[in-house]
Amino acid sequence: MVTKEFPDEGELVLCTVMKIMGTTIFTNIENYNKTGIISTSEIAPGRIRNIRDYVTINKKIACKVLRIDRERGNIDLSLRRVSQKDSREILEAFKKENAALLILKMVLNEKANQIADKIRAKSSIMEFLEKARENPALLDEFFPKKEAEQILKIIKEKIKEKKFEAKAVISISSTAPNGITLIKEALLSVKTPKITYIGAPNYSISVESINPKEVDKKLQEAIETISKKIKASGGKIEVKEED
Length: 243
Known about the structure:
Elements: E1 12-21, E2 24-29, E3 34-39, E4 60-69, E5 74-78, H1 84-108, H2 112-120, H3 125-134, H4 145-158, E6 164-173, H5 179-188, E7 194-199, E8 202-209, H6 212-232, E9 236-242
Parallel strand pairs: 3-5
Antiparallel strand pairs: 1-2, 1-4, 2-3, 4-5, 6-8, 6-9, 7-8
Helix pairs in contact: 1-2, 1-4, 5-6
């Protein structure tokens, strides 16, 4: 969702490489329709022999905004200051947004872009369709009944239910002669979570739900159940970290 003319300094943006002139890359900053400039020193660390080893015309790249000159309209960008993780996430979001727009075009044809702009004033198209999958009434704001029904049918077929996850790492130990058996029984006392052995005495425990308000509650309930079971047999449990 973009409601401003320029991006912010430090913001990560999706760009399309438009032109390479000497040691300078000119890009179009998607969603803002502004020109961004990347100098050689901001392409990659170390010596660069050939810029085209890193970028090519029309390539989509994730960049960080370094400086903005609003009067001249100049925006300096950096490619090397974007982590691989951030780059993957930005490019993946772009692919999802294109897929969401395609769903609108399947039903609306030439009206799709106009409706897409209205949706983007509030959120991304994909985010809107994901919410509409769980709450179809949201479609009524933008579409007549027949079109809303068609879009709902498509998104139920093509968009997976969004799941939320809560995770923790627990440490379990027992000095009892049958300690391994007691630990196993404690872990098996909960059925919903996914439990993964990391390395003695640590286990990863995770819970998924389509309801974001439920995941933390279910995780805590699972940990409490395991804790009661292991402590009753004289063992110890510690929650080492949570995400």
